[in-house]
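Suppose you are handed a protein chain with no further information: no name, no annotation, nothing but its sequence. What can you learn? This example shows the usual starting point.
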Amino acid sequence: MKTHLSRVSGFVSILLLFAASAAAADRPHNLFVVTSTNDPTGNSVVVFKLNPAASTLTYVNTLPTGGNGGASGNAGAVQFADSFGAVVNYGSNNISRLLREGNAISVGGTVALASKCLAPASVALKQWHAFVVGSNCAETHAWPEGGVEGSVVSLTDSSSAQIAVGESWAAVTQTSGSLLQLPLTADGALAGTSVSLTLPTDANNTPLGEAFWGNTLAFNPAHSPNSFALVNPSGTVFPVLGPQPAYPSNAPCWLAKGPGNIWYSGNSPGQSISIFFSDGQGGAFYKSVSLPGTPTDITVSPDKKWLAVIYTASNGTGGIVSVFSIDPYGDLTLAATSSPVGITSFNGVAISE
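A reasonable first move is to predict its three-dimensional structure. Written in structure tokens, the prediction is:
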């Protein structure tokens, strides 16, 4: 099994391409929000910088990924963990490395999917692995080196929306109505098999967003009356009633794990962020926080102090990013909102601290 040190050593050539000056370590460490344009003719990541003191979320730059976008009905298209990130290129059958050096984010080339695997829609980063799900496969890559690890999982349903990873298993939501449980090897890669879990009829309509709390999964069966549900490692599902009236008025779709027992979900038709509380075997809907548009993905910072959400503004100005501060009780306060940058809509969102 490769150690942390050997993985970093294997990636020295990429780090050298983006080496920062020694003075970079002494600069204030900015909080960046990263999203993607998802352009089918040339995908790019868009970087914003949060200045909480000035209540501003400032556009920094747009970086071509080297691949094409085009994904839809998905979440987790952009991820960041420590100094490394990833973005899917749906139309090019590859993913791109992202690298943070000091207060700069760069793109470090593309990594092809495993042979015959197509259309990556979602990526998850955990313990020096990148987990990717596309239209016909789920796979593991050593990250940031990029090589395929473990066994590729073949999928017969092309409707995968998101992949998320816990301690001993990963999960894939499929908008057709399925939730897949994918076991991990001792090294943390996909083991090569999957099981379709039985979902209750009141929580099986259009599974979309998902996130783990330790080894417990939560997901959004968005068009069900119970639009939030927990799943333990044994595959037992615990449905939770969502905001009412249910779909089509409300549909918590895109999920992020907050501090403690708090979860945040982008409620697309409700144009809001829906907040849930849970224990390991159930929970309750708390309240919704309104947005001036339709959210398409959501994320929480590693320190659990910030929430970022991307949405398409109702006033027709295009894709917008908003950042909220999270107080000790899990309530949200708007910290800053981006100005339009000429992108119709964004796809995927991550925070780099």
